[in-house]
Design goal:
It contains eleven helices and nine strands. By secondary structure, it is an alpha/beta fold. It folds into two domains: 31 residues, no CATH class; 223 residues, 2-enoyl-CoA Hydratase, Chain A, domain 1 (Alpha-Beta Complex). It is globular and about 70 Å long.
């Protein structure tokens, strides 16, 4: 507390005003304070430094799909197949995550149109247990692919994950081949599968459906990789280059097709669909 604040609080004729705590957002990149409403209106992108912050599944779906889209119901799966417990029970962790999130798990699917082009969009929410891939995520991913096959339209997936969900053990890892099979079915049907890589996309998600798209689009500055930088550096015993595992570095080295600002993403997807989508779509 500075001197001016202490004096002001002691003055009897100066009333203390209550100020909401959520009026400002601190940018994690440039450390500047941004008015919360301005930050939200700018799609969670810092207007000062263009840092792309994380965004919820609902906000992502509303940003990409035209009005009137349908959100698919979350498929039911066995919630605690291993009866897992560490410092907390897995069931308690799920309850805690659901209390802060409108969806039952980390992967949500919307079916609608993008600038008039039919599309199914799957979104991974890092806010739900780090977007970790468990049975619910794998099943929801496959349900989205099934909807795209039924509608004969493109399937677009926005990834954001810390990797597999350890509380589900091998059952979590089984989602990798399961999702891979669905991407193969889309390919055999001649339907576009487009991946939007957001911050962060790591672990088993990167090792499966995140890197199997026909087109890979990344948001600026997104962390994309399999193992962590420290693990890689300790393994190869070499200093990693600057910007390693960031979207721009991967684009430069051919692992990402393009890096697109969030505000331009919907238009870019519409353009890509014009090139890739079948002529007739339901």
């Amino acid at each position: 507390m500075n001197w001016l604040t202490r004096v002001r609080n002691k003055l009897p004729f100066v009333t203390k005003r209550d100020t909401p705590n959520d009026l400002w957002v601190k940018c994690p990149s440039c450390q500047e304070m941004v008015f919360a409403q301005e930050y939200q209106d700018n799609l969670n992108v810092c207007p000062r430094c263009e840092h792309h912050g994380r965004i919820s599944a609902d906000a992502r779906l509303a940003m990409l799909l035209d009005e009137g889209f349908q959100v698919l119901e979350q498929p039911e799966v066995t919630e605690d197949p291993l009866k897992f417990k560490d410092s907390k029970r897995y069931t308690d962790r799920l309850k805690q995550a659901r209390a802060k999130n409108p969806h039952a798990d980390a992967f949500s699917v919307g079916s609608g149109e993008i600038e008039g082009r039919p599309a199914v969009v799957g979104v991974q929410d890092f806010g739900f247990m780090g977007g970790s891939m468990g049975m619910a995520v794998g099943t929801a991913f496959c349900a989205g692919a099934e909807r795209a096959l039924k509608r004969k339209c493109a399937y677009i997936v926005c990834t954001a994950a810390g990797g597999a969900r350890m509380q589900e053990g091998i059952l979590s890892l089984m989602q990798m081949p399961k999702a891979t099979v669905m991407t193969r079915r889309l390919k055999e049907a001649g339907l576009p599968y487009i991946v939007v890589l957001t911050d962060p996309t790591t672990g088993g998600v990167t090792a499966s459906y995140a890197m199997l798209g026909d087109i890979h689009i990344a948001e600026p500055g997104a962390l994309i990789g399999f193992a962590g930088q420290r693990v890689i550096q300790d393994t190869i015993r070499e200093q990693l280059p600057e910007g390693f595992q960031r979207a721009e570095y991967l684009h430069k080295h051919g692992m990402v097709d393009m890096v697109v600002h969030r505000g331009e993403l919907k238009d870019m997807l519409a353009t890509v669909l014009d090139y890739l989508a079948p002529k007739k779509a339901a």
